[in-house]
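Colleagues,

Please find the record for the four-part complex below.
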Amino acid sequence: MAYSPPQRDEQAMRSFVENMARLLADWGFPRMAGRVVFTLMAADEQALTAAELAERLGVSPAGISGAIRYLVHLNMVAREPVPGSRRDRYRMVDDSWYEVTVAKMSLLKTISDAADQGVAAAGGENTPAGAKLAGMRDFYAWVQDNMPALLAQWAAHKSRLHHPPPA
Amino acid sequence: MAYSPPQRDEQAMRSFVENMARLLADWGFPRMAGRVVFTLMAADEQALTAAELAERLGVSPAGISGAIRYLVHLNMVAREPVPGSRRDRYRMVDDSWYEVTVAKMSLLKTISDAADQGVAAAGGENTPAGAKLAGMRDFYAWVQDNMPALLAQWAAHKSRLHHPPPA
DNA sequence: CACTCATTTCACAAGTTTGTGAAAGTACGA
DNA sequence: TCGTACTTTCACAAACTTGTGAAATGAGTG
């Protein structure tokens, strides 16, 4: 049996990109933005031009343009002007997964705040409706408050992997 | 200045329900299901019939039916047959917010697994693309692994409020 | 100064989601 | 067994999303 080195499987990559785009769509991402993100993630190059993205995905440059605008706005993708060329190149922002996740978590705060307005509308926590809504509010407020500590642990965990403590 | 007791504000409640339904829609809930959930949460009664839901929301009974089916399937709402009547009543399942949030978090595992497939398609962690995808996979796997502990803390926190330890 | 080519903008077509009205289904009460 | 009242199912209409082609924009280059 011959040794077979790890090798890039373009076809698997295509369906991977498509799968991920669908998952991200559940998180509220526009479909095309998801595709662009994972084409960048899946590229061995560190940055790609809009034309390269369009070609690899087999979609029109128009779609890429809109997706890029969205992603740059979210600070997930950085635009890198190439000196001496009209092509810009685009690359994933470092730690953007971390950031996006944190941002998504902040939705919990929004929910908690909205629930609090419901408590007020219900006439306070002593009404049956108010009590139910207050329970919901407290849960999400608590999760939101404790999430930063969890993510800080991740940062610690990661740096421990890179800089193991002396035995 | 006269004392004014807390009082239910129906108009504020209506916009609260609509707001929340929109927020839940971002989490992938069908719009109508969100409305039903918050109409139940906002009710001083513990359970409502389909007809009551339709009337309070000013929507057709048909819409309620579909939403209820969805919510019962998700185990967020329980169907309570009323003896001696053909009306069923529907109530929120206790702790369903907690459960729904846990379920949503399991999406992180899905993402992590998908990322791992991307690593394979890229030809392993030693390729540039594979390394990027592996970083993403590890982050979501870690968050997923540590989430249960966080939510367990909530359970502890809540029971502490209800049964304060002796001084 | 005009030419070239990557990118962006715009209007539209195709596909999907969402809520309704009408009709069928179901179980109680007389 | 029939009538009544609630609920569910179904097919469709309206609204929204998404991606495309074609034209406009803008930055280098001869």
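Chain B has two domains: 10-92, 96-162.

Comments are welcome before we finalize the supplementary table.
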